[in-house]
Design goal:
Shape: globular
Largest sheet: 6 strands, mixed
Helix content: 25-40%
Number of strands: 10
Structural class: alpha+beta
Strand order of the largest sheet: 3-10-9-6-7-8
Number of helices: 4
Length: 182
């Protein structure tokens, strides 16, 4: 992992910036990459997609799993959606799965958002915070969007708090693919 990619050695669950009266708390752009020897236990969560399918994070390995926390009226979520769509399409054949966790929306607004941006990967509704609770310590419950990358063993390997920068996410994935395939 290059030092250029290691943009932050550590981050806190509270990494977020308030947006005043806009009705959301945006991530502050913190990027954290966790060396393999320092990664915690696998992140285990499950849910039912808006399409009624069961999703279990433990079924992803040996694929990498990109977990994006979002909701439809979140401005930075709308900004990053086209990039996430493109990156998910680029990396699917390389053994990378994507899943969204929607923290606020009913099925109607969530599926409209996904259709509008052409998002093909599944999203799990999490209005009750059960999934975010399972990811506590990895995803700040008030920082949306947040993108968490799980390694081939399901362990949290990287996190972006705030809208993704496409080249940063691609570099993270390339590094983790090389690690998995080594």
């Amino acid at each position: 992992m290059s030092s250029a990619l290691l943009l932050a050695a550590c981050g806190s669950e509270e990494s977020a910036s308030t947006t005043g009266d806009l009705g959301y708390v945006a991530g502050d752009g913190t990027v954290v990459e966790i060396p393999s020897a320092e990664r915690a236990e696998p992140a285990v969560f499950s849910g039912t997609t808006y399409e009624g399918e069961t999703f279990e994070s433990s079924a992803a390995p040996p694929d990498l799993l990109v977990v994006n926390v979002w909701y439809a009226s979140c401005p930075p979520c709308r900004v990053e959606a086209p990039d996430l769509k493109q990156i998910s399409e680029e990396y699917t054949e390389r053994g990378v799965q994507f899943v969204g966790i929607n923290t606020r929306d009913e099925a109607g607004p969530a599926t409209a958002f996904e259709q509008n941006y052409g998002i093909a990967y599944p999203s799990l509704p999490d209005q009750d915070g059960e999934i975010l609770f399972a990811l506590r310590g990895q995803v700040a419950p008030n920082a949306v969007p947040t993108t968490l990358v799980l390694d081939a063993e399901g362990r949290p390997a990287a996190r972006i708090t705030g809208a993704i920068e496409p080249s940063t996410l691609r570099a993270m994935l390339d590094s983790l693919i090389a690690e998995r395939d080594a």
